[in-house]
Amino acid sequence: MIPHDYHLHSHYSCDSQATMAEQCASAVAKGIPEIGITDHFDLHPLDECSGYFKLAGWMAEIDRTRAEFADRLIVRAGIELGEPHLFQAETQALLAQYPFDYALGSLHWVGDEMVFDPVYFERPADEAYGLFFEELERMTRVGGFDVLSHFDVVVRRGLPIYGEYEPRRYEDAIRAVLKNCIKRGIALDINSQGLRARCGVLTPNVEVLKWYAELGGERVTLGSDAHNPQDIGADLEAALDAARAAGLKYVTQFERREARLVRI
Ligand SMILES: [Zn+2]
Ligand SMILES: [Zn+2]
Questions:
Q1: Domain total for the chain?
Q2: By CB distance 3.0 to 4.6 Å, which of 19, 215, 231, 239 could disulfide with 222?
Q3: DSSP string, the chain
Q4: In terms of residue numbers, what domain contains 248?
Q5: Ligand 2 centre and the CA of 223: distance in Å?
Q6: Which CATH number belongs to the domain containing residue 172 in this structure?
Q7: Neighbours of ion ligand 1 (CB under 5 A)
């Protein structure tokens, strides 16, 4: 059984049309007992979603949806913070305005370059991946969020372009990120969106999860990154299998930003 889907979007994200109720109904139909709605909160001036999130409407809809599904589904209030290390005052102010269950921290931009934009990959692979992990190290060093989203999401676009991604080549940089997460109690989002995309991999993959477990990391969440109801829970069996194969024993539940480990 899939214990939860902790990374998914509704129409409060600029790249989704789904109502929260549609996302919830899909989870119920698929037998998933718990979800977390994690709409984008982006402030990077060049991001197409920048300034799109509207807290008042979002609060009204999540409260209404939770009441509607109360007997069938646990609905967590999450949020996906873009580059929280660069927007600390704004992101912390947002988190103070509603009893969020958890915040994802996401790196979509390295400087003024978006890591889904082909332009970012007009450089050697080692440089594109290396720069990404350096920025991810800075982001996790600062913290201010509960779950690190789609660890090496740069491969979603990078892998089809370069034809390869070998985490071992960046092992020191990756381990530095993992250590920051462990020190700060930040969980890893095992994100399955890459399995539906051209890169065909989990982010992070089982190799990185093994390093995390070796270093003493225990906290992971599973996320489809669904932007529509069909994708809710997609490939999360694979994410669960990867966690187990890495030697991890739990998934992490969040309530009001408190973590609880649940056996898998
Ligand atoms: Zn993201
Ligand atoms: Zn997302």
A1: 1
A2: 239
A3: ----EEEE--TTSTT----HHHHHHHHHHTT--EEEEEEEE---TT-TTTT---HHHHHHHHHHHHHHHTTT-EEEEEEEEESTTTSHHHHHHHHTTS--SEEEEE--EETTEETTSGGGGSS-HHHHHHHHHHHHHHHHHH--SSEE-STTTTHHHHHHHHS---GGGGHHHHHHHHHHHHHHTPEEEEE-HHHHSTT---BS-HHHHHHHHHTT---EEEE--BSSGGGTTTTHHHHHHHHHHTT--EEEEEETTEEEEEE-
A4: 5-263
A5: 9
A6: 3.20.20.140
A7: 106
